[in-house]
Amino acid sequence: MSENTSGSSPADQPTRTIDGLDTHTRSRSAPGQHAPAPQTAGQATAAHGAGRKFSRVTEERWGYDPAEVDDFLDRVDAVLVTTAGDLRSAPGVGSRQVRERVFDRVQGGYESAPVDARLDELEDQLADREREAFIHEHGPERWEEHLELLGQTLLGRLNRPHGERFRQPSQRKQLGYSVADVDVLCDRITEHFRSDEDLDPSLVRTAVFRQAQAQRCYEEQQVDAFLDRVVELILALR
Question: Region annotation Disordered: residue ranges (predicted)?
Answer without folding.
Answer: 1-54
